[in-house]
Structure formats: structure tokens, C-alpha cells
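QA checklist item 7 of 12: single-chain prediction sanity check.
[x] sequence parsed
[x] length recorded as 541
[x] structure emitted
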Amino acid sequence: MPAEYVLSNVWIGLGIAIALFVIFYGVGYMSSRKTSSDEDFYAAGFAIGPVTNGLGMAATWASLATFLGVIALIMRLQVPFVYLWIQWAISIPLLTLLYGTSLRRMKAFTPGTFIRERYGKGSTVITVLWMILIMIMYALGQMIGLGRAFELLFGVPYNTALIVAGLATVGYITMGGMYGASYNAAFQMVVMTLAMIVPMGAIMKAMGSSGWWFPPLAYGDMVPSMLEAIPGFFDMKYDFRWYFALIPAFTLGPIALPHLAMKVFTSSSVKSARWAVVWFALFLGLLFSGTYVVGFAGNYFTATTGRIIEKADQTLLILNVFYNPTLVAAFVMGGALAAGLSTIGGNLMAIAGLVGSDLLGIMAPKMDSKKKIKWGYAALAIGGVLAILLAFQPPKFLVTSILWAFGLLATTVTPAILLGVWWKEANKLALMVSSIVCGTIFIIISPHVLPAICIGKGLPAALGMSGGMVTVPLSFAMFIILSIIFNRMGAMAPTLEDKKVIDRIHGWGDDYDEKRYNGIVTPLIISAVCVCVMIWGLQPW
């Protein structure tokens, strides 16, 4: 990398990084003193307020991929990225509306808690294993980003940076449990927002923006200049199916992300969970408006100066090194670190909950809570170390592993949760068959596994968009149709207790009504629509 793109004084960067980790470890230590039960460890005692939770949700969602990989996507996609961004932004409100507050009533630790009560042990094992795999992939992307940020921050080799940053991160998260992860994530969101917005204001001012002080205005008044520099920047470069494919891949997938759902579950009440979403939308909207500023500025920088940013996922860091004083650039890198750390914290806590609460709840139901917590700690640490080891050979495109995982999650877990919450006919055997079959198909048709038979090509295939257009609707349709068939055969049909779970989590208490959340007409219509979408997705891309 050219010397002009590298932080000139690594000691400033080191000081900022050390200061941040001291705070994170301090919060983790204080939080560890509050953790005495599995309820404390996995759900922060169901005591997190709406503002803190809103900040934490936003921080967990706004990962290092936001600071690095997502900006690389803007550099490549340009304005069509906005449509992708919309899908991400609406996923958390949908999570809360569609099932988050409902499962909060049952005081679930993870989505696996609901699946165990709704579908039984076999279905839980399958869906939990899918979620663990996806969380490791998600954490992998963050570890790669941490390694690259440390590499640029300190000028050390990537592998060295990865080991140091990864182990330091796993350490403080393991110490603090969900209390520590929640409070640290709230603080990290403040850090990363300031690191994104304020320095970019100075950069946009240097580029000639009169509205530099507010992200949308920063690029809004530079539209004529951008059109002159890059005439095709605002063109819709893809056909309608490309934009539609974002829905199954990037809206339905994140809905089932366990680490985001767990943030909703930590809320002090159902009302608090709903208000947390409002704060989430506010904080994340501000951050993402800044993200688009970076992508806009990166394209404009390359077009007007002729300087090539070889690693598009380092655009934010490079722009700040080039335009801003060393102290500011180092602070921005600190914000990038905070982004990665907040999401890894959520990922690893999700792994801990899925193993310690869900799997052990099946394998060792009589195990006391203290032993389950110890297993949760162990799972957290092992998941972190595994992500570090996998990151030694990173994919060329940081965001690929994360976004591809969204499609896999939408295929294997989202139908189980949404249909399980809203439809009493949802059958446990149908869930197991559809999840295994469709999840396997998604992996097989991916260019990352068998390129010769993959569905689609280029970026849509790499990100799981074209594959998701086939397997997500197939999974919903197969789950619905098999549920109707199996229930009429008596094959593992939902019991009365299974059905009562649905009424209870929707707030009906003991007022059970067999007709409520039942029927097959609407699900069959959904199946028919899904089949049409699947056929559309199978057409040549």
C-alpha cells in the first residue's frame, strides 16, 4: 500500500486502541460481578432499557462490514446499493414486529428456546446447528476486518494483527457475558458514529460540499459534480429481478439472526423492546447515512484525483489518512475496531446461548444453571478461537461470507420461526426435512462450493442473492405443503401444548382458541407465490 495511505504515527493508533480496550475490559469486569445466573449471562437479567438496547442493536448490526465491506459494495454498486441498504434497515423492525416481542413474553434466551418449545428436541438441534454455523461465519467476517484494521493501524502483518486483536476481543467478551456485551455495544455505537460522521464532514468540506455538516446534505449538494465526474453513478444498472432478489437474501435472512434477536430478548419489557427499535432506527439510520457518504466520497476521490484505492474495503481508513490529521485518522480506525468488536460480541454471545441454553437444555436438561454458564463461557471462547483460525485464509471480499450467510439463514431458520409463531399447523417433521434439504441445496448451488452448477453468476451468486431466490421460497413452500400432508397423516403433528405456545406468546394467556392462527388457505397462497418466485429465480441470470 502506498505510504501516503498508511497511518504516519502508529503510537497514536496504539494509544487509542489500548484506551478502548481498557474501557471494554473495565465494563466486562464490572458486568461479570452482576452475572450469577443463566438469566444474567444470556439475557442480562432481562433488564436493559430501550436507549441502551437501541444503541446495542445498532452496534451489533453495524459491524466491521459496515465500515469496510459495505463501503466496498458502494464503491462497486454505486447508487443501487441504496436498495440493498433498505433491506438491511427494515430487517430489525420486522424481527421485532413479527416475533421478537412475542418471544420476549416467554423470556426466551435465543430463538432456539422458542423452537424447542414449539417443535421439540430434534428440530431444535437441526436449527441450532445451522445458527451456530452462521454465527461462526459472521464472526469470521468480523475477525478478518479486525485483522485488516489492526494491520493498517499499526503496520504489522495481517496474521499477527489477527491473533492480537482476536484474542483481546474474545477475552473481554468472555469476561462480561450479556451485561458486558450490551453496555459495551452501546458505548461502541457512540464511538463508531462519531468516528464515521465527524471526520467525513471535514473530508466532504475539503471536496467542496457546502452541506458537509450533515451526511445526506454532504453528498446531496455534490450531485452535479458527481454526475460530471462519473456520469453513470446514479444509474439503475441491474434488472428488476436483481433488486427483488435482495428481499429473500437480505431481509428475510437477518430477521432470524440470533444475536440480534437476543438483543430484543434482553429488554426490560415488551414495551421497552418496541421503543428500542425506534432508537435502533434512529442510530443506525444516522450511521448508514454516513456510510453512504464514504462510498460517495471514495468514488469521487478516485474519479477526480486519479488515485486508485486498490483495497475498496479500506476506503474509509484511506480517505481519513489522506485528508485528516493523524489523530483523527487513528480515531476513525478506533471506530472501525468498535464496530467489529460490538458485532463479534453479539455473535459469540449467540453461540454461547445456542450451546449453553439450547443444546444443553436438550442433552442435559437437569444440569444446574452454573454448569450451563460454564459451558456457555467455553462455547463463547471456542467459537472466537475458531473464527480466528478460519480468518488466516480470508476471502478476497470481506462482506461475502457475511452476506452469503444471510441467504443460508433465510433458507434454514427463518421459515421455522415465522411459520412457527403465526401458524399452528407448522409441523416439526416438515421443518426438519425442509431445513436440511433446502439448506443443503443452497450450499451446493453456491459458487463457493460447486461453481460448475451454481445458480446465477458474478456478485448475485457470490452474495447468495440468486441462490436465495431459489431456496428461500422453496423452503417456505416445502415447509407449508409438507406440514399439511404430515398433519393429515398424523406424522409428528403439533400437540395441543405446542399450539398453546402460539396463543401464549401473542399475549392471549390461557385464552386458547383453536381457530386462532390456524387454517391452510393463506399458507397455500403463500406457497403458490413462493413457487412462482422460485421458478423466476431458476431462469438464466
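[x] summary fact logged: The CA atoms of residues 471 and 528 lie 14 Å apart.
[ ] second reviewer sign-off
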